[in-house]
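Section 5: illustrative case.
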């Protein structure tokens, strides 16, 4: 799941997936603003089939947070 999420992030933010870690910050390292985060969550829902409520999305700051949530709710 980590690799799949990194691929989605790399495509969305024009970043290098191989340089991403579980500690990579969505806002600080990938320079995502609030609209980017909303779009990212919709993309992740489409790709993984996991619904991510806005209140949960607001608590996710790193790739690790996203991976943990998706894996826990698959």
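Designed sequence:
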């Amino acid at each position: 799941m980590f690799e799949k999420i990194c691929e989605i992030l790399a495509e969305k933010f024009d970043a290098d997936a191989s340089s991403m870690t579980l500690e990579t910050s969505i806002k600080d390292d990938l320079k995502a603003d609030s609209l980017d985060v909303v779009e990212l969550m919709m993309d992740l829902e489409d790709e993984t089939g996991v619904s991510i409520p806005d209140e949960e999305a607001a608590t996710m700051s790193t790739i690790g947070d996203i991976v943990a949530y998706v894996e826990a709710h698959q």
